[in-house]
Give the backbone structure.
Amino acid sequence: MSEEAVAPVEGQPQSEPSMWDSPDFAKFKSPEGTIEYDKLGKSYTELEKMVGSRVPIPAPEALPEEWDKFFDRIAPKDTSAYHLELPGVDDVNTEELDNWKRGFLKAKLIPRQANDIMHMLTQEIVNEQTRTKKANAELAIETEAALKQEWGANYEGNKELVGAGLREMGGEDLYNLLSPLLENNSVGAKFLYDVAKELRTSPLMKDAGKGNFGLMTVSEAQAAKMDIIKNPANPLYASYHDKGSFDKRKPAITKMNELNSVIVNSPSFSG
């Protein structure tokens, strides 16, 4: 006689499945189906550690003290946690970066927040540097055009005269301070040139006898011109006599203009 399933009797309480029958607890059973309590205990211990290490986020209306406790848990303990970089920024000041790190630590910012702030600042600095370089380049072009229009062929020679005068009067420090006017301020450049012309024969100048701050005497300039014109061994001889493009003659022509400027600017020069 075959076995038949016995239908449950209506109203008879049914046994509920044990929680150990859940697939979630399968990892705590042996192949034979018995419960391995050591695995279960270890899992519970790890869970407690994980829960205990979590930092609850305070509610928006929480007191400042609660927020301080929260940030104390997640913020670095010293500035070594911050690795700040400013890619694209010229002349990074390490001391200034250290000040930023101390500020971030005081504000209890995590490294990611600090880096986000620095990236925004870096981009703004790079943009400002780009704008400044562009403006300086445009100003240099305008200044050069204005000075060449006024000084003509003596442009390079006049710049040399101003530079030599600045060095004679105050050395490299004065030259570094004022020489940028030659590149980005035509009014300032012309003022320096006028001053240089007046002072080049002043008895206060160490090389006043040469009339051009010791660059070279008039006779030396005239001799240098003739050497370019007549001496085949002179490096600029071939360039000066080249009948081809202006680019090939340009080095010699530029030098000749400088020498002419020495002669023209000499106190002994007469129209």
Summary: The CA atoms of residues 26 and 33 lie 9 Å apart.
